[in-house]
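Quick check before the chapter quiz. The format below is the same one you will see on the exam, so make sure you can read both the input and the output lines.
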Amino acid sequence: MWIENILYFVTFILSAGMSALGILISYQLYQQYKKQALSALLYQQIFLFSFLIYSVWGNIVLRIILSDIQLSEAIHAKLAVFIPMIGLPFMVVSWFMLLKLGLKLNGFNTSKAFAYIYFPTLVVLVITLDILIHKNIIRIPNDPDLFIIRILMGINLVIHLVFVLIFFAGHKKSVKESGFGKREALQYLGLVVLYTFALSFFNYFEHISTCISIALLFAASTFVPFIIRLKNQYKVAEDENMNFEEFCETYEISKREAEIVVEICSGKTNKAIAEKLFITLQTVKDHNHRIFTKTGVKSRVQLTNLVREKTGQ
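Here is the expected output.
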């Protein structure tokens, strides 16, 4: 028993460390480059590891606590379903952010329609599955933990397949800027398949296979931020100037925002910009706010200096 507890303790320390590492790297990347794609990566890591820590280790700790209590098979089955279901919203948001990351890296715009389609679809799927289980239309087998894990891993695998397919329909923007392209996406999918297989038979060698499966799951989950940090092709060399179009592409500045940046750099006031571009003063202010957020500056002077620094103009 003590060997089992030691293995669980060591695995928990490793998984907690990998969780912290994945979130920390994602946070540093976002703070350094202020990219929307990196914002999606940061949230994906936060929500993913929130779910994994709660559902995986929360479940294990509860089992250990209740190991000396005689529970009926019915209660055991309900606990196996109930615990992951509470943390499922974290996983659903994590999947959403993963898909958003793939779209952003490959130059696709993510509209509100994407969220309006994604979340209701997942909610309906989860509710339908829950109803089918409670109505005994889908019967929980003798090993309810394995049953729930296989369902979650099946959905997770489908989401990751879609994530990889995005890279084959993209504009090669991901390879140029982040270093995370088709090859890296396929490598990541391979890791997902590996831990999916391991988790599908997590109790084959009891606690040994369980700990190995958990370690693979947490390690694979840090792959994306680790590769982006390793290749780190977002950063432009200090001695390398870019043209204004490249500047706008790097900071994800839209065409209208680019027009406003040009006018700001020429010294025009918000009112003068509004009159020249035939838009309202409030619209100019809204564009200014978005431009400042994307470029990480706090004033028109800082923006002008940034443009001149990056473009050499």
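If your answer matched, good. The two ends are 69 Å apart (CA to CA).
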